Amino acid sequence: MGIFKDLESNVRGYCRSFPVTFVKAQNATLTDSEGNEYIDFLGGAGTLNYGHNNPAFKQALIDYIEADGMTHGLDMHTDAKAAFLEAFRDLILEPRNMDYKVQFTGPTGTNAVEAALKVARKNTGRQTILSFTNGFHGVTQGSAAVTGNGYYKKASGLPTTGVQFMPYDGYLGDFNTLEYLEKALEDGSSGLGHPAGVIVECIQGEGGLNVASKEWMQGLQAICKKYDMLLIVDDIQAGCGRSGTFFSFEEFGIEPDVITLSKSLGGYGLPMAVVLLKEELDIWGPGEHNGTFRGNNHAFVTARRALEEYWSDYRFAEEVQHKASVIRRRLKEIQAENGGTSKMKHKGRGIMQGLEFANGDIAGAITELAFERNLVIETSGSDGQVVKILTPLTIEESTLSAGLDTLEKCVKDVLAQQVSKAS
Length: 423
Known about the structure:
By secondary structure, this protein is of the alpha/beta class. It is built from 14 helices and 17 strands.
């Protein structure tokens, strides 16, 4: 692996936690150059909801390439884009009575966030965006500004202006943080001012699997309407089925003004991002927000196939919800058998769950031991204190169980080591 150390920037991250060379991947199984197999509980940080090299998409992509279909098209019309838009309208928007325009941004989630922030500012003429504690929205200049984590904000090298932070649901225990938000909006001397919009994750992935309640999200939408602020839901990691429904907010009965999607939207792991915005908000001038790679036609092909394969009815969502219940039950059992809530806390929902420990050292020791035992899993949270499951939604139930078995043993062994050190 000397070539990576010699030539690749120090900014590399995941490879430090998983120091092998991967050469093959299929669904939720990874294979390294030595032939060792690993269970994937990382899923491309939420990019591979449908697994690695999904056969339902692979042939469609091969056929498109062999037919010399458009690869790169800027924002020009292509048959691949038209087919994706038709599938997205017919299988996602119309069945949910959702009426949005689709903006193709650069292919990454952070670019979708940058565009969404511009939409709010452009439509209101105001500058400030309201974000929440532990939120993560990307690391480019605008998205880093609305990200809570100081590590990423510091790297930008400039003051992160144009944002105010408020406590997320549960951040202050049982206190309803929306009461504080509304008080600050009403008080002209609170320092909050009148934000253009609010950006929020229904499940904070990188922030530690914090989950907003239905009541809190409905209350937040009501506040946004009352004070003329756009509600932006960042569904980049929690969307595309990760929560158990296509959008993470479906069970809340809310209607965001703007939605960002990326990661698993491309289906095959190919980069693709969109902003969904209400038609009256679509006041862009031609090319006003652009990007050379906003027309990834290969991603359009696989994204369409993902929608047709998994979202033409409710069977896939029901399978995801079943697996989510398996994960929840197993994590609760691990918690109960290893000291209960005094040692760890269950967090998250859907197939986006985990265990929070006293500190990042414990969680990091668990994921390090897990990798030694051929399980790829990462941490999240402000201190890396949450062991987070982001396995592909298509994982075979037997593989899921095997991975949870490994995780259980790692938790038990690391906590036992902690007790031994303390004594």
